[in-house]
Every structure is written in C-alpha cells, then in structure tokens.
From TrEMBL:
It comes from Kutzneria buriramensis. Residues 303-421 form the CdaR GGDEF-like domain. InterPro entries: CdaR-like_regulators (IPR051448), CdaR_GGDEF (IPR041522), PucR_C-HTH_dom (IPR025736), PucR_C-HTH_sf (IPR042070). This is PucR-like helix-turn-helix protein. It comes from the Bacteria. Residues 472-527 form the PucR C-terminal helix-turn-helix domain. The lineage of its organism: Bacteria, Bacillati, Actinomycetota, Actinomycetes, Pseudonocardiales. Transmembrane segments: none annotated. Gene3D superfamilies: PucR C-terminal helix-turn-helix domain. Pfam families: GGDEF_2, HTH_30.
Amino acid sequence: MGDCRNGQKESAISGSSIQQLLLALGEPFVEVLTAPDGLDAEVRDVVILDPDDAPDSRAGDLVLVIGARGKAAAGHVRAAGKRGATAVAVKDAEPLRQTAADAGIALLDVRSEVRWEQLESLARNVVSAARGTADADAGEVLGDLFSLAQTIAALTGGSVSIEDTANRVLAYSRSSDEVDELRRLSILGRQGPEPYLKMLREWGVYQRLRSGEDVVHIDARPELGIKRRIAVGIHAGTQPLGTVWVQEGSHPLAEHADRALLGAARITALYLVQHRNTTSAGLRLRENLLAGVLDGRITGESVARQIGADPLRPAAVVAFLLRSTDRTRTEVELHRAEMISIISVHAASYRRSALVTPIGGRVYVLLPEVTDAATVTAMTRDAVAATRSHLGVSAQAGIGSVVAGLADVPVSRQEADRVLDAIAGRPEVDVAALADVRTQVLLSETLTLLADNPRIRDPRLDPLAGTDIGRSLLAYLDAFGDVRSAAAGLHVHPNTLRYRVRRACELSGLDLSDPDQRLVAQLQLRLTK
C-alpha cells in the first residue's frame, strides 16, 4: 500500500466529507456512483492501492485503486469495504455499483484520462485543508485553497487555477462558464498544447511570473482554442512559489481584476508557506499578531519585526461588520468566511504587510505604513462593495484615524469600533470615519453612559419612557418646539401633540422654559424612543 500516514491515532484525525471532495474535485475528475453512508461520510486519509499490494486500508480512507479497472477491481472494493474504508476510487467503475453497495462503501468513478498522481495530490489538499480547519478555533481560518480560488474567481470575473512551480494544479475554481482546452487539460494533469506553451516561453511569460509581481496579460489564440488570460506569480520574498491564472470566459474580466489578482497572489503565498512549514509566519501567526497588537498585548515593534514594516510610520485600523440577515447561522458563517477572504485580498493589494483577523463578530484590518487617509478609505469602500457584489450581503466598515506608528494601533482600533457602533443602526451608511459621524459617535457614547449609569438620569422622566406621551415630547423637543412639524412627523393633529406635551409636563414636573431641563429630557428620552 502506498500509504503516507502521519502516525496520528484515528480518534484524533478529522478530515473532509465526500461532499467536500466532490465540490472541490467534481467534474472533470470523479463522479459518485454509490454512497451507502451518505455524502457526509468522512474521509480522513488518501491512500493508493496497487493490485500487487496486500489490502491495508483503514477506517476513513479514500482508496485509489490503480492498475485495475472495472470488474477487475471488484476484490479490492470488497476488501476496502470490509476494512472500513469510506470510499474507493476506480476507473471504469460502473460495473461495480452493486459490489460497492454490498460492501457498504462509497464508489467513485474516475475519468479515464485523469492521472492518478494528480487526483491523489488534489484529494490530499482537500483533506489536509479540512484537517487544518477542524484543528483551528471557529472563525479563525480563512478557508482552503479551493475556497480562495473561488473568491478570486468572483473578484476577477474569470476561471481560476492555482499552480505550483512545477505547473501542477493545486486548486481551481468551479465554473459554469466557457472553459478552454488549456484549462481543461491543466486541471486533468495533462500538458497543454505545445505550440501555445512554446509561445509563452518565447514571450518570456514564465520568466516574468517567476521574477516579479507584475500581472501578465496573455492574448487569446482562437486558432488553438485558447482564451485570453491574466496571471501573476506567487512569491515568498524572492522565492517563487507558483502562479495564479485567470481565464476569461464569455464575459470580459472585471474592471479591477489586475489589482484583485495581485492581492490574491499575496494571500495565496501565505497559504503555501503555511502548508510547507506550519511553524512559519503563516496565517495563524499573522492573525494572532494582529489580535495582540489591537488590544495592546503585543508591542508595535514586535509586530513590525514579524511583518517587515516600519513601526514609526503611520498606520490605521479598519473594522468591518457583516450586517444581520434572515439567513441561517450556517449561511451567515459561510458569508463571514468569504467576506474575510475578500477583505484579505483587498488589504494585501494595498500593503503586503497588511494584517487581517476576526475578533468576535467583527473583522479587523491593520494597514501599516499608510501614505494617506484617502487611500485607506478607497480600499475600504472597494472591500465593502465587493462583499455586496459577490456575496449579495451588506457590510459596514468603521475607519480608525491614521496614528503616528504601530505603538498607537489600539487607539485607531478603538476609534474604528466607535464609528462602527455609531453606524450600526444606519443601514444607509456603509463606510465612515470619525470625521463623517463625529456627532453621532459622541451622542451614541453619551446615551450609552446614561444607560449604564442610572444615578445620572432624572427619575422624573421614568414614567414617560416608552409611552406615546414620551415619544411626543421628544418629537416636540427635536423640532425645537415647532408643533406643526413635530405633529406631522408623528402623524397626529397639532392639538393632540399640544395636549401630550402638557400632560408630559404634568406627569414629570418638567419646566420646558428651562434649557437645561429640556436638554436632559431630550437625551434621556432617546434611550427608549
């Protein structure tokens, strides 16, 4: 058995479901023929079985039967089922439906042109990503490479594939759009048309992708069945890690596809580095760094050393919030994870050293070495617009002030939170800084102070709280005593409003000729309006 197990006890291993594998691989790789335990059955490991090997599968395995097709693989299917394997993959598997059903094992039919090593590599990526997600705290993992590829596809408007330096496909987006022969063959693990690949070499495309971060545009070649593409190299410093390719479909790529692709390549680099060495400065470390500096547990100097930024240059924090929807909790969590990916791409396109992390129900972005506040605002608006456009949900963002250096990041974070708190009840406002909503922020914080401290409230107003008389008095005060205007807003007759105001004064003992009493009443009545 060609088995690459990690020595963990089975009880400690978690993995992917068959459904996740199908969503990630699907066409043009495999088709499920039988699944006695359903598509939620867990796949914990991927193993290769050669016909000459003795059966050695374990519970939770996906067994790839190489060298035997159709009925010739029946014995291996029965053996894998007897040993508790979750699924078995066979080429020309149609005649084995009943055999697999009797053995109680899921049967995957592998397309005849698929290379086994390519299928093994991609299936392992899916299972490994699921393990990483299961081991992480809820909400702290941005997702696997397949979901990232899907995010890149949404932002660029094309079909995406992520390749390593050997041009092996690591992940790709699912697409119902037109797919050309080069993409199909690349995903299948077969070499693309040699005349086209030769042109790419002659044009220096591969050299440009390996040497820098420039987005490379490749024209369509209709005579070869090749559509237009853009691509960018994935790098860790000067070391190339791979390439992100975007194929144009039946519609032109998005207007800002180049910028989205650049940010996506930088985020992809973090995934690949983390995959190579889990102790390196990967996604979890960057998230923990940001969480620490936001609440002051980690110094700005320490963070600067980790991300390669100047701690004495200006920085800013932006807080994002996914607005409540009527969707299920699972859908909300999915949208939140996808929003984090979108925000990460936009932040990375602005600054390579940008940090992104979810805390509570919010997502925070630290932008070091800020050049000007206008650029921060533009990045934030782009991220919010992309969330609305690609996910169909609304997000809001509060922009903290640009502070002198990373040591003052907690100050910017507090301001971003204050702004977000102030606009949370105003769905018409999606992005704001303190200067935009200063009055609302101050009023909101004053009302919070009143709500939390009963001793500084006027008890005479308590009988009016939440009543029509109280709401009428507040409308009257907000309208500066203009009875007709306030009455119109309440949809009552002016005489009705006059009566209610008089009644409010009788019940509370207020003297509305006193400006101080008017001010206290106006503030306190806002707590229950």
